Amino acid sequence: MLGPVILAASRSDKMRRFVSAAPGTKQVVDRFIAGETVDQVVPIITDAVDKGLEVTLDVVGEDITTPEQASAARDAYLELVERLKDLGLGTKAEMSIKLSMFGQALEGGHELALANVRPVVEAAAAIGTTVTLDAEDHTTLDSMFAIHEELRKDFPQTGCVIQSYLFRTEDDARRLAENGSRVRIVKGAYKEPAEVAYQDKAEIDKAYVRILRILMEGEGYPMIGSHDPRLISISQELARRAGRKLDEYEFQMLYGIRSDEHLRLAAEGHRMRVYTAYGTDWYGYFMRRLAEKPANLLFFARSILTKG
Predict the structure, then answer these.
(1) What are the pLDDT digits (tens) for 187-246?
(2) CB 158, CB 125: distance < 8 Å
(3) Residues 274-288: what's their mean pLDDT?
(4) How far from 206 is each of 87, 165, 175, 198, 219, CA to CA, in Å?
(5) What pLDDT is attached to residue 10?
(6) What is the Cα–Cα distance from 73 to 81, expressed in whole angstroms?
């Protein structure tokens, strides 16, 4: 399968240089990355909201090697909060954060990431919006969930992400559904060993449905991160069975993928949030998008061949 190969390449400096230099790269990156600066992404935010959509914003970049870089990532999000304040969109525009950007993998990284993320969550709350902590590889999750729990003491609206391909996630979902969290469920986009994660797509999908049922029947607010038409349909049925109103859960999809579906769901009255990434350090995010769907890789390959 190509997915694991691409995920391995996402950690390769040699492959990073090759992909960055490829003549067709920019065309494909522009499909998934909304821009490099806040100024470039603001029109995209306002256009989405004008169309009845909501957004969650991700400043891309994960390869943090110094505390100074982690502080710079924090400051980039604080700049974003200031721009969102000017737009006055409330929860129609929130933020997604990877704690690796905030220094989680450095020495003393748990405390460092918590110290860096807290002012962002506080600033977000002050303008009427919130933050969701993205899930990364399985070795980071205990720290992420602990930071999530700590932040929710003062900012209970803080969300988190769970991944259906991990064996642990059903237990995590039961715990989170009981305490009223905002929880985004995704399939997962990291290369994980068979000891901790399902490797077969059918098993991942079955787990997704089991976990989503737990969330829908719980007391929290489910956020359904999927482009899969079958899972979207199942999600709607599970919500109906659980007696949830349309504003008691939401769908989330990536910027640049199935844009017509974004509009269709919003037109039906669903809350539909577009995960919108921007920034200059796009490589890791971009490679995971290629790994998730073979059509994305074919699109990239065609772009290289036609631009070469």
Answers:
(1) 998 889 999 999 999 999 999 999 999 999 999 999 999 999 999 999 999 999 999 999
(2) no
(3) 78
(4) 40, 9, 20, 10, 22
(5) 45
(6) 13
- The residue ranking higher by pLDDT, 33 or 73, is 73
Q: Please report, as a single letter, which amino acid is at residue 124.
A: A
Predicted pLDDT of residue 257: 87
pTM of the model: 0.86
From CA 169, how far away is CA 175, in angstroms rounded? 10
Provide the mean pLDDT of the chain: 88
pLDDT for res 296: 55
Q: Is 276 left (phi over 0), alpha (psi -120 to 50) or beta?
A: beta
In angstroms, the CA 186 to CA 172 distance is: 13
Closest listed residue to residue 205, CA positions, set 172, 165, 241 = 165
Q: Do β-strands 182-186 and 221-225 pair in parallel, antiparallel, or remain unpaired?
A: parallel
Asked whether the beta carbons of 250 and 270 are under 8 A apart, the reply is yes
Amino acid, single-letter form, for residue 123: A
Instruction: Confirm if 103 and 109 have CB atoms less than 8 A apart.
Output: yes
Helices (H), the chain: 2-9, 13-21, 25-32, 38-50, 67-87, 109-126, 141-152, 169-178, 201-217, 229-241, 259-267, 283-292, 294-307
**Could you count the other beta carbons within 10 Å of the beta carbon of residue 306?**
10
Catalytic site positions: 134, 184
Buried b (16+ CB within 10 A) or exposed e, 25-61: beebbebbbbbeebeebbebbeebbeebbbbbbbbbb
Note whether 248 and 272 are within 8 A (CB): no
Q: Give the pLDDT confidence score for residue 307 in this predicted structure.
A: 47
Range 169-191 average pLDDT: 93
